[in-house]
């Protein structure tokens, strides 16, 4: 009987440890911490979502080679939800209940905002690829962290740059976006800030994410003749807008927020992209920055080349890295509460130039408000500002 009770006690301890978020093992590490991944590979934003997810996965491969985190192995478990909110909710429940993840790397604005209450109730730190201003509200989103400038902060920085650099009277601006939570996220904030600093918003046009023609919207915009048009889209719709604007001979200066910007835009927009200005939240692989060294070394070890990757790959890598840097500072990296506390200790995290330094605290989960700007010249994005804000 003593032997029976001893075996039963061991089994019970095993069950309890598995439920704690970090799976225990008998190897050299304390166990495995699972991080969830919600990816868009095949949905409406899959053009930028695919390289972003590849960057996240690559970082965890790199981490497995480099070593453990506070004595634990860390594993990324994720799937494609095709940019559908109900599928994101199903995947979230699976990651939480079946896979027992300790934190999640998410994706879209609509799904991240829809999951906020569940994320808070489940105490699961959540770093999303959405930079919605709403997620900065720490009372409503106590477990959400923004790893880059919010869309609203990006728009404010662009408007401030326009105000500071425009000559010849009051600058006029149009806003072009898609009818989704992502598309609409910065619009009201942009209009309010424009009014505050003396920039006139003269037009708004809605172009769907996967639109193949934007001629009618651009013809309507042309009537207002804006000096600038700020685009909140991904590569596909941005390319459609730029190509149709070129066909119509518009002389408006188009400026895209971060998901409109990147190398993937160039082959589909062609020479229509020339002169386009984009918000840069994360570095291009061809920039000579110290943070590129570990990515280059990792890829070469796999027989791959850094020059074959794009900016969104870097963006995914950085998001995963920020999560893990927070875990390293956690007293208990196996629980959501522990990881949140670790993330809140990050202060001016140096990312080697891959992105603006990130800081979180107990009352501020917006990591930065800084961005850079780049212009397409001779078929390549060339950064022409340091990090700027508003």
UniProtKB/TrEMBL annotation:
The keyword Cell division does not apply. This is ABC transporter substrate-binding protein. InterPro entries: Leu-bd, Peripla_BP_I. It holds the Pfam family Peripla_BP_6. It comes from Cytobacillus depressus. Residues 32-379 form the Leucine-binding protein domain. Residues 1-20 form the signal peptide. It comes from the Bacteria. Keywords: Signal. Belongs to the leucine-binding protein family.
């Amino acid at each position: 009987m003593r032997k029976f009770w001893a075996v039963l006690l061991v089994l019970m301890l095993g069950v309890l440890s598995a439920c704690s978020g970090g799976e225990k093992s008998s190897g050299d590490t304390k166990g495995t911490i699972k991080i969830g991944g919600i990816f868009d590979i095949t949905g409406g934003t899959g053009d930028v979502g695919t390289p972003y997810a590849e960057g996240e996965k690559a970082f965890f491969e790199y981490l497995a080679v480099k070593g453990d985190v506070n004595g634990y192995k860390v594993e990324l478990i994720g799937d494609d939800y095709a940019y559908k909110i109900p599928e994101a909710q199903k995947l979230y429940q699976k990651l939480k209940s079946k896979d027992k993840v300790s934190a999640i790397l998410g994706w879209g604005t609509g799904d991240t905002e829809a999951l906020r209450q569940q994320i808070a109730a489940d105490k699961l730190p959540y770093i999303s690829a959405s930079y919605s201003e709403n997620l900065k509200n720490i009372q409503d989103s106590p477990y959400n962290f923004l790893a880059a400038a919010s869309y609203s902060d990006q728009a404010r920085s662009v408007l401030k740059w326009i105000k500071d650099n425009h000559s010849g009277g009051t600058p006029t601006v149009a806003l072009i976006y898609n009818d989704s939570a992502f598309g609409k996220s910065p619009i009201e904030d942009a209009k309010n800030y424009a009014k505050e600093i003396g920039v006139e918003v003269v037009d708004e046009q809605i172009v769907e994410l996967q639109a193949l023609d934007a001629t009618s919207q651009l013809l309507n915009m042309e009537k207002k003749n804006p000096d600038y048009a700020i685009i909140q889209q991904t590569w596909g719709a941005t390319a459609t807008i730029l190509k149709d604007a070129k066909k119509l001979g518009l002389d408006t200066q188009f400026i895209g927020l971060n998901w409109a910007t990147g190398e993937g835009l160039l082959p589909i927009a062609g020479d229509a992209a020339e002169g386009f200005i984009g918000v840069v939240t994360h570095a291009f692989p061809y920039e000579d920055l110290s943070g590129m060294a570990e990515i280059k070394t990792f890829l070469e070890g796999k027989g791959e080349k850094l020059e074959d990757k794009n900016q969104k790959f870097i963006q995914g890598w950085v998001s995963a890295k920020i999560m893990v840097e927070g875990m390293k500072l956690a007293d208990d990296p196996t629980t959501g509460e522990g990881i949140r506390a670790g993330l809140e200790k990050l202060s001016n995290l140096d990312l080697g130039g891959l992105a603006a330094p990130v800081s979180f605290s107990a009352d501020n989960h917006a990591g930065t408000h800084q961005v850079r700007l780049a212009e397409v010249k001779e078929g390549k994005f060339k950064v022409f500002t340091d990090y700027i804000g508003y």
